[in-house]
Amino acid sequence: MIRLLSREDRGPLRDLVVATGVFTEEEVEIALELIDAVLGVPEQTDYIIRVCEEEGKVAGYYCVGPTPATEGTFDLYWVAVDPALHGKGIGRALDDHACELIRGMSGRLIIAETSSLPRYSKTRDFYVRRGYTEIAKIADYYRPGDDLVVYGKYLT
């Protein structure tokens, strides 16, 4: 079941993001800032978060938002799944849901950014399996040896 974010999700989502073993402490804090932005001002439209629940527990989530100064472009800020539930189609369900939500908002393009580090290889593989195409790479973007990899997915 994919549903709206609730206050009770903050702790489990923090635990889930940490459990992935991929994100730095700074990245975990950024994820929490976006969660807090949605919880603190539900009527804001910069960030949209949906949570996947399995057997009454948080199993994954995504965060998307319209890209400022564009027409129909959205950023996929976060998609994360509990590592214990990998391979069960939760990531696929979250991506499908995000695409439908974005289409419903006249969205036509989703941009997802990630790191080139080896620990992000599963993330990059996920994007490719889900129909995203690598559209840009910026060397040493995050830090020396850590490139920015940009993926795009057209919805039209």
How is this structure best described in words?
This protein is α+β, with helices and mostly antiparallel strands. It has helices spanning 10-19, 25-40, 90-104, 121-129, and strands spanning 2-4, 48-54, 57-66, 73-81, 109-115, 133-143, 146-154. It has a single domain (2-154), classed as Aminopeptidase (3-Layer(aba) Sandwich), CATH 3.40.630. A seven-stranded mixed beta sheet has the order 1-2-3-4-5-7-6, sandwiched between helices. Helix 1 (10-19) packs antiparallel against helix 2 (25-40). The model has no long low-confidence stretch (mean pLDDT 96).
Low-confidence stretches: none
Global Rg: 15 Å
End-to-end Cα distance: 26 Å
Per CATH, the class reads: Alpha Beta
| SSE order, one letter for each helix or strand | EHHEEEHEHEE
For the secondary structure, the number of strands is 7
